Amino acid sequence: MTTWKSVLAAAAIALASCTAASAARTDLVLGVPLEPPHLDPTAGAAAAIDEVLYANVFEGLTRIGSRGEVLPALAESWTVSDGGKTYTFKLHTGVKFHDGTDFDAEDVKFSLDRARADDSTNAQKGLFAAIDTVEVVDPATVKVTLKSPQGSFLYNMGWGDAVIVAPESAETNKEKPVGTGPFKFDKWAKGSSITLVKSADYWGEPAMLEKAEFRIIPDAAAAVPALLSGDVQALPNFQLGDALPQVQSDARFKVVVGATEGETVLSTNNKKPPFDQLKVRQAIAHALDRKAIIDGASAGLGVPIGSHFSPANSAYVDLTGTYPFDPEKSRALLKEAGFEDGIKATLKLPPVGYARDGGQIIASQLRDVGIDLEIIPVEWADWLKQVFTEKDYDLSIVSHTEPNDIDIYSRKDYYFNYDNPAFDKVIEELNLTSDDARRTELYHQAQKILADDAVNGFLFELPKIGIWDAKVEGLWENSPIQANDLTKVKWVD
Amino acid sequence: MNPPLSEPEVSAGFLSRALANRSFVIGFTITAIVAAMALVSFFWTPYDVTRLIVADRMQPPSFEHPLGTDHFGRDMLSMIMVGARNSIAVALVAVGIGMGIGVPLGCWAAARGGIVDEALMRFNDLVFAFPALLSAIMITAIFGPGAINAIIAIGIFNIPVFARVSRAGALSLWPREFILASRAAGKGKVLITVEHILPNIANLLLVQGTIQFALGILAEAGLSYVGLGAQPPMPSWGRMLFDAQTRMVVAPYLAIIPGMAIIVTVLGLNLIGDGISDTLDPKLRRRP
Amino acid sequence: MTAYLGKRLLIGLATLLVASVVVFAILEILPGDPARLMLGMNATADAVEALRNEMGLNEGLLPRYLAWVGGMLSLDFGRSYTYSVPVIELIRERAIVSVPLALMSLALSTAIAIPVGVFAAARRGRPADTVAMAASQLGVAVPNFWFALLLVYVFAVWLRLVPAGGFPGWSAGAWPALKALILPSIALAVPQAAILARVTRSALLDVLGEDFIRTARAKGLPRGAVLWRHALRNAMLPVLTIMGLQFGFLLAGTIIIENVFSLPGLGRLIFQALNQRDLIVVEGIVMLLVATIVAVNLLVDLSYAIVDPRLRTAR
To answer: Searching chain C, which residue's CA lies closest to the CA of residue B213?
Structure first.
């Protein structure tokens, strides 16, 4: 009797789960490690903002695709004239913001002018520096005139910081973001989750998910059980560290190791003795065992780099062999530079796992060749103040996650304190060049100069470790920009 | 407590009585072992904890590494030994700060009374109104994380504790006959405090000292666990627990071992405190 | 009595005032610019300056202090720099996690401690007492966050009975939300229970030695009745005092435990705010916690005054 009952019950459950499975799910819970401070991508640098809203809620004139390519977005097409100084954007029509107001050329002018205004609080104001004027030709056409040609202009307009906002809602976007994307903002339970729902009257191809929730899970210790129990179905970019093998062995999940735009470097103060000497920097480069660093700081994942460039980029050259791991050579170089008694210096580490763990390994490796590092852990606020702004540091470790940012080495007053006119010339030409073949060649030159000068200790490209339910499709493998583009995400059986 | 008429004899036979107390003996043995471990680590550890051998990471306990290796391939036994140094140093200095400032304040308040006493009590109210842990977190967040700032943060909260204990102890002594006699003989309040009050509250302070010592070790572990205590590469038990947290599933021993070290050390100190207070007043086992 | 309580109230208020000065002064020393932090590495200097103006950071210290204290009197704790919402709203959102957690732990620790303490006192010196006291000795020595790690490992990772961390929110229903708080409250409660059990035991032993208990016994009342009805009631005062103090401690103790379980409570908020230099949030939470502790201490004083009439006239 009891047996019969349990068989029946089992059958009923099996039946119920069959019917449930026949219609594919349309909701997704994604675990993200950081909570955005607010929800306005045009007023903050936090990657967490873009990782929720970019391409989902907000769109720009152009957008960056999963392989880092520039795609049309709110601008249906564009023409470039006047020797690369004038861009005329043809806009999509019939586009509405989520609050029901219409999108047109006035909104584009408003957004771009707002971002470059004197009182702008845009974190990437430099993206708009080349713009001279923005003119509304007609409601569906915008003409942007640049001060001088800029090879990366269309790319720049695809950043999260360049999305188009409406004058009616710009002020309240921090709390209640209003964009034009396929998802609209639903609610934000501070400290725990942000929910987006499908926008019914989206102008383009509608999203396949009805609802997406970004749940804030600050560390791997909590993320793994949440994933295993099914509470969370995707961790699109999560450093699980040593907990990863446990998930990898579970067939229910897909583990995708892709590339980010995060060049992790041992930042070096190039003006501060003794690091102003090339031989000392070369000695450091020879003392670094990238394999041990990647094993210890990134659970063995991550591609070694020899310059400041992403291996995922088509213009990448492998320069890891420029100064191979060779402690003997390193000691010899230090001796040549007059430091046979060793060097004492500080290593300031921001509060991220790869830096704090990598820092200890690097300190141990450098001690082997006679460079004694005092480790000073700092919070982000202090890091930005001391290291980045005041340049009060010897060495530091940080991942430069902005895409395609090799030009930072030509910036005057950047915290590396690197100054090489030959490099500046390459970047200058790059800015004015739009021919792809020539651009690739220039990128190669730039990478080579940085590698030879051993400006920083080039360590590894931060991996994007994505873990999601094997039945989920459409999440990005790589992370060419900081985003979790959900427009193509769906459940399959 | 009935005040004896003559000055009580201080700590005569105290040690021999303490040694007959089971709690004291067990506690003392444990504490001595931990202290010895920390001392030995200055001269010798099985492995060098400053050398990271990533290839040997997270090996379970074995013959070469009796307690295994951590995520950087460091020997856990050596880490525990060097970590003991840090825990003891932080807690001990914090107790020193508390005693060094709190006891004179408490004695002063008891001797002078009036406005001084009132001011001290209000200061105590103020410090006690801040949850100690919260304030320690604020202090280390402001002045930067590190062992020194952890000592200061913990030490500050020991001040009112010792002030309160010594004030209460001193207040109960002042009206007693042997003190009154000294005053009649023309001795000054400072001299009386040094000659009579302090020796008579020493045992009380000793008990409180072991309690605060134990609490200090727990507090240091907590601060290091949230990343505000001792900084790497300096090994610290709390820090080891933090590092172990995400590796719990793969290598639970990384979390269990430093936790045991903390528990055993705190237990040892508490047993000493219990033993002493039992010895002082065997009738009353009132200490919580 | 009124004069005594009036004085205590006045002292409480003065404590709060001094605390506000201390908190404000300390946090103003904190290095780091919240505006720069928000805009990141690529921001231009004028963008940072514009944001500083927007946040009101360029005003003088005194006007800012006065505005802050003035606002708090009407429960307006200012606006968060990073979230740009009223601080009180943030605190409310987080308090609905931390306060239930602290209350659950307090209830749990009482539920464990009182029976154990009474049991041990009743069997004083016998093996049961020794075992209970040894266990409590151990409990006092266990760091609660380490205990939390073990609980997660056993109940969440191995047995998968409860979630390992995170909070579904009360909107997900009372049971899932409470479930998320079970392990954290156990981790917080057990070390506290160990302390409370020892206090209960020694307070009871004190009372049991007094004359009226001997009288009750002599009258032939059953042992159990004497213990629970007469002795415990009289031993409650020190126990209640410790419980009052523990509530403040538990609220603060949630700081570390919330980090272990990634619960979105006040503790996590304070860490987040400290890291983002969202000082006005930190200041608000600290003042609220201080006020809570001052209030609890006042209540303890009040209960003493009611129970012990001598105090009403003594001061």
So the answer is: C141
Q: Which of B130, B222, B263 sits opposite C145 (nearest CB)?
A: B222
Task: Tell me which residue range forms the domain holding B240.
Answer: 70-282
Mean predicted confidence (pLDDT) in A440-444:
95
The 10s digit of each residue's pLDDT in A379-435 is: 777 888 889 888 999 999 999 988 888 999 998 889 999 999 999 999 999 988 878
CA distances to A5, A330, A419, C201, C230 from C226, rounded to whole Å, are 53, 81, 86, 15, 5
Q: Are A221 and B245 within 8 A, CB to CB? A: yes
Relative to beta strand A234-235, strand A457-469 is antiparallel
Mean per-residue pLDDT over chain A, rounded: 89
The structure's pTM equals: 0.82
Instruction: For chain B, list residues with pLDDT below 70.
Output: 1-14, 281-288
Residues 6+ apart with CB under 8 A from A403: A64, A68, A261, A310, A480, A481
Q: What are phi and psi of C278, to 5 degrees?
A: -85, 70
Distances (CA, A) of B187 to B5, B180, C252: 19, 10, 47
Supply the pLDDT for residue A304: 95
A17 pLDDT higher than 60 = no
Instruction: Tell me the domain boundaries of chain C.
Output: 2-73, 91-313
Is residue B144 assigned to a domain?
yes
Q: Is the peptide bond before B233 cis (omega within 30 degrees of 0)?
A: yes
Closest C-alpha to C230, from C244, C246, C241, C219: C219
The C-alpha atoms of residue B58 and residue B72 are separated, in whole angstroms, by 7
Q: Which residues pair with A301 in a beta bridge?
A: none
Whole-angstrom CA distances from C232 to A80, C114, C197, C213, C229 are 88, 9, 13, 11, 6
Mutate to test the interface with C, among B121, B139, B142 (most CBs of C within 10 A): B142
* CATH T-level topology, domain C91-313: MetI-like fold (1.10.3720)
CB A223, CB A31: distance < 8 Å: yes
